[in-house]
Design a protein that fits this description.
The complex is a heterodimer of chains A (106) and B (348).
Chain A (H helix, E strand, L loop, with lengths): L1 E6 L5 E6 L5 H7 L19 E4 L4 H4 L4 H6 L10 E3 L12 E4 L6
Parallel strand pairs in A: 1-5
Antiparallel strand pairs in A: 1-2, 3-4, 3-5
Chain B lengths: L1 H4 L1 E3 L2 E4 L3 H12 L4 E5 L6 H5 L5 E2 L8 E2 H12 L5 E4 L3 E6 L8 E5 L4 E4 L1 E4 L5 E4 L15 E2 L12 E5 L3 H10 L5 E6 L8 H12 L4 E13 L2 E9 L4 E5 L2 E4 L3 E4 L15 E2 L12 E3 L4 E2 L7 H19 L14 H6 L4
Parallel strand pairs in B: 1-9, 2-3, 2-10, 3-6, 10-21, 12-18, 13-14, 13-18, 14-15, 20-22
Antiparallel strand pairs in B: 4-5, 7-8, 8-9, 11-19, 15-16, 16-17
The chains are: A alpha+beta (106), B alpha/beta (348).
């Protein structure tokens, strides 16, 4: 099983199992991770599943596509390592991924 | 306000004009129940039209694939024979119970001063009402309506003032261009030097910025300064993370919409984690005569699917008929064979 670690704005860390092929957002919801709202249900239409990818993982996870970059305009405190977690598909290469959730989802 | 004095009387009030609210018009209409729909958005379709008009949906029965907007357009056509009345761009503020549990009667008031009375209410409000997203700056509430705005209600307010506009879409760019002749100075703030707005608006904005007739700042909002609701400056954070202040009198922020439950919480309905519990036979709430359907409801096994909402609307309409026509017996009929239904649909 692939593992993903979510760190919240206060620093609390939760490591959960993620299914290959699901998204990081779905993994968060399935495990009741606080700080991910996913208002639109994964349509890349709301920017309420915003996460910061840990610096050592940004190259593996990659950059947002154009539509996601546009949607990030609606997120708060966007940084170079910002991604929408509904657009990150879990693969074997992402085993051990660490993301931080922002203080608020807009 | 003339509208205040006139009470519109109808059979059913549907709150929310998303796909499920629209289909409720159809199911109620087949049973001769006339409906008025109210939605906070200026257009029908709810999330389908607002969040994902171009996105394909794959689980609408009979459609292997259909976009959000195409589904809304098809529903509009399907309910056309029943001539529903739409109250768009209005939020329901008050819902009062006037009748008795056996003979319910409700009075609904919108923020535009429209007052309606109906025998049944169907809440099809999905995730709640779409409201502008607040900028992520602490203390913003104190400035709202005085010097921080999420829409322009009165252009005159901005006359001769230094206006900061935040955002990169059509709303932000349109107001840059429209307020430019009115305001004393316009500053557009966006997190990146790319804009989602229509290219001609972006070009017009860039031309103004090149001529130094306005300022374009690539940064994010970091804080507000001012007193008694009046801004004096906005603190911005640039790409290098350094913060700096830009003086201004007003901030117009366009960060999209978010869904909030809103006034529904004040209507005396039982709520469970911001959802309305219903039964699964009539989809009625704890208040007789108030039904709820679609994403806003919860019951054991509930799925937030459009098709589930359609089913819920059909069953709610059956019970609604008992309230609207207490003396009439309801005969179950099929649209394929009933001439009376076909006449209502305008096909017989």
């Amino acid at each position: 099983m692939t593992k993903v670690t979510f760190i919240d704005a206060s620093g609390a860390s939760r490591t959960v199992e993620a299914q290959i092929g699901s998204t990081v957002m779905e993994t968060a919801l399935r495990n009741s991770i606080p700080g991910i709202e996913a208002e639109c249900g994964g349509a890349c239409a709301c920017a309420t599943c915003h996460v910061y990818v840990a610096p050592e993982w940004t190259d593996v996870v990659g950059k947002p596509a154009q539509m996601e970059e546009d949607m990030l305009d609606f997120a708060a405190d966007v940084r170079p390592n910002s991604r929408l977690s509904c657009q990150i598909k879990v693969t074997e290469a992402l085993d051990g991924l660490i993301v931080t959730t922002p203080a608020r989802q807009g | 306000m003339n509208a205040m004095s006139e009470v519109i009387k109808t059979d059913a009030i549907i709150i929310g004009a998303g796909p499920v609210g629209l289909f409720a018009v159809f199911e109620l209409g087949l049973l001769d129940i006339k409906a008025h729909l109210i939605d906070i958005l200026p257009k029908i379709g709810g999330q389908c039209a607002e969040l994902y008009p171009e996105k394909p949906i794959y689980d609408i029965p009979g459609y292997p694939v259909i976009t959000g907007q195409a589904l809304v357009d098809a529903l509009r056509k399907q309910i056309h024979p029943f001539q529903p009345t739409f109250h768009l761009g209005e939020m329901v503020e008050k819902l009062e119970v006037l009748g008795t549990p056996e003979r319910p009667l409700f009075r609904v008031a919108t923020d535009a001063g429209v007052i309606l009375e109906a025998k049944v209410v169907v809440i099809a409000a999905g995730g709640g009402s779409f409201q502008p997203k607040r900028p992520p700056t602490p203390g913003v509430e104190a400035y709202e309506g005085k010097s921080v705005f999420y829409s322009v209600r009165r252009i005159d307010h901005f006359r001769g003032r230094r206006v900061m506009i935040a955002g990169g879409g059509d709303s932000a760019l349109d107001w840059v261009l429209n307020l430019h002749p009115v305001a004393s100075r316009i500053t557009l703030v966006h997190r990146r030097d790319e804009f989602r707005a229509a290219p001609h608006s972006v070009n017009a904005m860039r031309a103004l910025a090149a001529e130094k007739k306005m300022d374009l700042v690539i940064a994010q909002l970091a804080g507000l300064k001012g007193a008694d609701g009046q801004l004096s400056a906005v603190t911005l954070r640039g790409a290098d993370s350094a913060t700096f202040d830009v003086e201004c009198d007003d901030l117009l922020a366009f960060y999209g919409l978010t869904m909030k439950l809103g006034p529904i919480a004040d209507w005396g309905l039982n709520l469970h984690e911001n959802l309305i519990p219903t039964d699964t036979e009539k989809f009625e709430t704890n208040v007789p005569g108030i039904f709820a359907v679609g994403d806003i409801i919860t019951y054991p096994g509930k799925l937030k699917l459009i098709l589930s909402g359609f089913h819920e609307a059909a069953l709610a309409a059956q019970k609604a008929h008992r309230y609207v026509y207490p003396d009439k017996k309801l005969l179950f009929q099929y649209t394929t064979s009933s001439t009376s239904l076909q006449r209502k649909l305008g096909v017989s």
